[in-house]
Every structure is written in structure tokens, then in C-alpha cells.
Amino acid sequence: MYLYNFFNSSTSYRVRIALALKGLDYQHHGINIRIGEQSSMDYMRINPSKGVPVLITDDEQTLSQSMAIIDYLDKTHPIPRLIPADNMDRSRVLELANVIACDMHPVNNLRILGYLKKEFGISDEQKNDWYQHWINEGFTAVETLLTRHGHGSYCFGEQPTLADCCLVPQVANALRFGCDLSTFPKVLAVYEHCQQQPAFQQAAPDQQPDYMN
Amino acid sequence: MYLYNFFNSSTSYRVRIALALKGLDYQHHGINIRIGEQSSMDYMRINPSKGVPVLITDDEQTLSQSMAIIDYLDKTHPIPRLIPADNMDRSRVLELANVIACDMHPVNNLRILGYLKKEFGISDEQKNDWYQHWINEGFTAVETLLTRHGHGSYCFGEQPTLADCCLVPQVANALRFGCDLSTFPKVLAVYEHCQQQPAFQQAAPDQQPDYMN
């Protein structure tokens, strides 16, 4: 398999965690979204959404969207399962993962922050307020879901799931932006537990071949 | 089952389409997100994300996030299946659905447009430019995915899937905002086909008990 990704992209990081948890080898191809490589004509042929990650499967299918990619990996390489088969356990994992994937990440990613600065001319302070606002809204929901349904060292029990694949990059991103997450102790506890695990360490931005300081 | 939703919310509309396609009865509870009912203390106890839709299942589980809800319905009421079981068909459905659910809808929904107006003081023209920009970016990707992998009257074949549940509300929303979608003929063809089907008609905003002109 072949993964187009960027070391610091949260959605790329999600997929790298899933690959590492399943012990799957792949070729890493860095796409530098800071300098717009995702908008080149060559790359747009690969992904018309102009985003990372994209997985090229062993049978040469080109698949975009991190949530679809992780579902694909879970179907084709089901050990360990990251999306439980059992109905309500499954639903809780998907619910929490989608709070991050639909409500949090999309509004704070690079293309959005870039538009706000370029087209609306917002200041750095306004950008930080925007970023912090959606982090607070989202992690307030995640903290409540973990309080109600979470248990164990990971989001749900003692095995990592898709929820952890989404949570860790989102926390890392928020910490990088200097957000205070102390009001989300359960979110931080899961993050810190995951950071101790080899698969999560292997998937981290600073372990990638395209890492830049 | 019991559905907290708003007639004009795209994510509510997705779930209503899924319920109608499966022929499932439910009680409709309108939450008026235009006047902030989703932020009341009572509703935040139901959904800490302060959003619609929320499904209360027959065994009284409270489940948020439209993508998790439709997956739940597909597992518990699998006829007709909206997310195929077969790997690559499944992945194509999830890929297209997530372009809409992760890249398009989150950046153009009411809470985002509200923040842009209130905090950044953008004009109506700037709001329309923002809206149209993300519609164009997203539907360019969807149109390409339909060209590569789509076939038949729906997004993928002659049976509706999760992809159609996501596409129809997003097109309806864009048309309501006055967007010109003529450069996306495949998107429009799927939309128009769906609009002829009773389940999609039944789920439409103007058929809901909380509909307001």
C-alpha cells in the first residue's frame, strides 16, 4: 500500500495510527500542504478533493477520506478491529469519532484558516479565538461522551478504536496551537495513555520522513 | 424511535431519508436551531454537541451524529442496506458521503455562518462567497468521484445508499442559497432522480411538522 499524506495533517495522522495498530507496511509519500502541493494538477488527478490522506490499495484503488480509509483497513485487515461489530459499542465509537471528524477538524484545518486570513483579513488573535472556540465546543461534547460511555484507558475500554485514532491527532493539534485543555481531563487521560503505546508513537508527526521542525 | 431534528438541517434530512428508505416509523421532535433551542440546558443534556439530529433508540439509547445514526439504522434494520457490505463498493459510498459530511457541510452550517457574521462582521456578499467557494470545492470532488465510480440513477447503481442520503440535502441546501450547480451535471442528475422517489419526498423539509416558510 501507498499513502499520500503530510506529517502534520490530523487526518493523515489518524490513518497512520490505524496502519500502525494493524501492523501494516506501506510506502509513505509526503504531500506538503503548507506550500500547496495538494493543489497541483498531478495531485488533483489523484484526489479531486485536494486533500490528504489518500491510500493506494494493494489492488491499485485510489481511496480518499480518512474515515473511509480506516473503515476499508478494518474490513480488509480486521485484526485488531478498530470499529466494533457490536451495535451499541460500534455506535459509541462512531459517534465520538464523528464529533471530531465532522464538528471539530473541518472548521480548524489549514484551508479554512487560510481562507479566513486571506479573504476576511482576520488578525492572529481572531484566528486563535476561532480555533479555541471550536476546540472548546467539540471537546466539551467529547468529554461528556467519555463521561457517559467511556471506560478503561482508551476512549472505550482497553483496546484502541477509531475513536482513539481521531482523538489523538485532534488533541496534538490543539496543544500545538497552545490551547488550554485542562478542563477536559478525560480527553487528556486518553491522549496521554495513547502516547505511551508504540503504534501511536510510530504514527506521530515527528517520526515521519517528511517531518520538518 | 424518537428523532430530535430540524426541518431545514441537512444532517437531520440525511437521517430522515434513511428512516424513510427503511420504512421506519419514528416520533418527530422539532428543535428550532434558528432561535437557539439546541443550546438550551435541557437539550444540552440530550446532546452535549448542541446539534441535531439525535436519535432515541427503541431501547432508550441517545445517539448523536448523523453518520453514526445511519450506520446504527443500517445495522439494526438492514433492509434495504444503505452502506454496502462489499469492500470497494462500501468504500466508494463512504468516500463520497464523507466528502459531503466532512469537507462540505461542516464549514457552511448555521453555527459557522453565524460566527463569521457576529465575530468577524463579514458582509452578506462575503458570506455568499464563502458558501459558494466550499460548495464549488466539494461538488468538484463529488462530480469527479461520480464520473470515475458512479453508475446508474443513484450515486452508485440503481439502489440508494448513504451517499445519496448525504448528497440530496447538500444539493437542496446549495440551491436554497442560490448556487449555480450547472457545472455539476452528474450531481444534479442524481439529485433530480432522488427527488422523484417517495422516500426522499417524505423526508423533505417542507413535509416536516416543524416546517416554516
Automatic annotation (TrEMBL), chains A, B:
CDD domains: GST_C_Zeta, GST_N_Zeta. Coiled coil: none annotated. GO terms for molecular function: glutathione transferase activity; maleylacetoacetate isomerase activity. One of its GO terms (cellular component) is cytoplasm. Residues 1-81 form the GST N-terminal domain. Residues 86-213 form the GST C-terminal domain. Pfam families: GST_C_3 (PF14497), GST_N (PF02798). It comes from the Bacteria. The keyword Isomerase applies. Keywords: Isomerase, Pyruvate. PANTHER family: MALEYLACETOACETATE ISOMERASE (PTHR42673:SF4). Belongs to the GST superfamily. Zeta family. This is Maleylpyruvate isomerase. It comes from Marinomonas polaris DSM 16579.
